[in-house]
Design goal:
By secondary structure, this protein is of the alpha/beta class. It is built from ten helices and eleven strands. It has a single domain (about 5-270), classed as Luciferase-like domain (TIM Barrel, Alpha-Beta Barrel). It starts with a strand and ends with a helix.
């Protein structure tokens, strides 16, 4: 068994805030290491319909108040949605509410986020604009009593993580690419300790029949890890061996509190 920590993403695209809070409580009962909130204004489904979203910092604070032990974090807070100082104070407030359990991952956002920004009158800007916003957000948030990670895969984002942050997160991608990028970021990291983490979508079931039924219902894309806890542990071991100190799993059926126990089984096998 390794010392890797295992986290779970919470369902943000729901009307009722009790849904993600229930998942967070289940994750804590199951012995997981952390729960993480997304940061979106809404999300469009494949058919074009708009799904509601719970505001990221508000949900983060609620989850911090409703749990006692488990780490609470963002994956990732978007630097373009709030002024850097506002984001930093919001994160610091969550640290206080949680009693010091916060992990703040911040990102620049990608093209999929453009519609969200523009719908609310926020400039989306060029990549260079968003990179500058990310740098300002990281500088404002760090050294406030919680680790600050940078999420993203662009070379300039990874460089910013190495030179200004306490960690780096990659969402998705295969283990070989993660290994190459993780090694490069870690080698250039200025701040110590420096944490490398990986997150991605999963479908997990207690047995092969349950896995098959979930896969038939959700029809996962090629980048979704699918399997029993044993199968997922086998797949995730490559990321751990590549340097991931955290693996953060996002079940596609994210509102199902039963996933917490299954992911805890994954954790026990790593």
């Amino acid at each position: 068994m390794t010392s890797v920590k295992v986290g779970l993403t919470l369902p943000s695209f729901v009307d009722d805030a009790e849904v993600p809070i229930a998942v967070a409580r289940a994750a804590e009962r199951a012995g997981l290491d952390g729960v993480f909130v997304f940061d979106h204004l809404f999300r469009r489904s494949a058919d074009g319909t708009q799904r509601p979203a719970l505001e990221g910092l508000s949900l983060l604070g609620a989850v911090a108040a409703e749990t006692q032990r488990i780490a609470v974090g963002t994956l990732v807070a978007r630097a373009s949605l709030r002024p850097a100082a506002t984001l930093a104070v919001g994160l610091e407030t969550a640290r206080r509410v949680s009693g010091g359990r916060l992990i703040a991952a911040i990102g620049a956002g990608d093209e999929e986020s453009r519609a969200e920004n523009e719908s609310f009158g926020l400039e989306f800007g060029s990549f260079e604009d968003r990179l500058a916003q990310l740098g300002a957000a990281v500088t404002s948030a760090r050294d406030r009593g919680f680790p600050v990670w940078v999420g993203g895969t662009a070379p300039a984002v990874r460089e910013l993580a190495a030179t200004h942050a306490d960690g780096w997160n990659r969402w998705g991608g295969d283990a070989a690419r993660f290994a190459t990028q993780a090694a490069a970021v870690t080698a250039r990291a200025v701040r110590r300790p420096f944490t490398v983490s990986w997150g991605g979508l999963v479908i997990v079931g207690g047995g092969e029949e349950e896995v098959a039924a979930k896969a038939a219902h959700w029809r996962p894309g090629p980048h979704v890890l699918v399997g029993t806890p044993e199968g997922l542990a086998d797949a995730l071991r490559a990321y751990v061996e590549a340097g991931a100190a955290w693996v953060i799993l996002g079940p596609v059926d994210s509102t199902d509190t039963g996933n917490a126990e299954l992911v805890a089984r994954v954790r026990s096998l790593l």
